[in-house]
């Protein structure tokens, strides 16, 4: 199945999961999985949240992501991936000077 993000409308989600500013989101969902191509502008964030029934894989397309996992801070560059397993808690910030673009897959388990 082809998912063409160029044909999916981008939606602006303010303060996603309690974060700062806006998440710009293109998403395909089938009820069990959500596949997204998202952007965070400089200074924007996704708030701390727990994946109680699913896991998330986030591949950084461009920019630099700062993830906080518990007390650990991870810097993830373009070409690298962050994984949050079921039961895991994380948050994401764009502390850089350019937009952060990432591809994310959330799968229900």
From TrEMBL:
Positions of the Cupin type-2 domain: 39-105
Pfam families given in the database record: Cupin_2
Keyword set, alphabetical order: Metal-binding
Top-level taxon: Bacteria
Keyword Flavoprotein in record: no
Keyword Metal-binding: yes
Protein name: Cupin domain-containing protein
Natural source organism: Faecousia intestinalis
Source organism phylogeny: Bacteria, Bacillati, Bacillota, Clostridia, Eubacteriales
